[in-house]
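Recall the central idea of this unit: under ordinary conditions, the amino acid sequence of a chain determines the structure it adopts. In this exercise we apply that idea directly, starting from the sequence alone.
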Amino acid sequence: MLLNVKQRLLLLNILPSEGTYDVLKIVRDQQALLSFTEEEHMRFKIQRQGEMFAWDESADVSMEIRIGEVAATVIKRALRQLNEEGQLKMEFLPLYEHFVEGEDWALDSDAAKATSENGAEPTPIRPDEVVEPRPTSEVIGSRPSAEGAEPKA
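Accordingly, the structure predicted from this sequence is:
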């Protein structure tokens, strides 16, 4: 999925810090994918100003960031919770519409321009058919067992 600096920061901000072991491992991996490299920090001139971040918007380029099925579900849940609590902010609208309402990044919208490079096609998060949520163990293969534990038959 093509994401610009602002969208990456917004997604990093809503990923949960609590949950099950399986989900938190996926969240940690997603945080690593959304985070900025040292080179990106220098290129975008990212600076923390109090509780906010500032960056050189003229250098902002959308990056292809892989968002897995479980991570997308976690993001969707977080956006829904913000909405239900009346805490959804204007800058989250394109993300909410995409993750929760299933809208593709429309190529003629401001959100698409901010998330597309040189006319690249948007990558939908979910396919045309409705996909039912699956247990984490089903998505990642199995539940991890404690080191040295006997496998269950």
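The longest strand covers residues 47-49.
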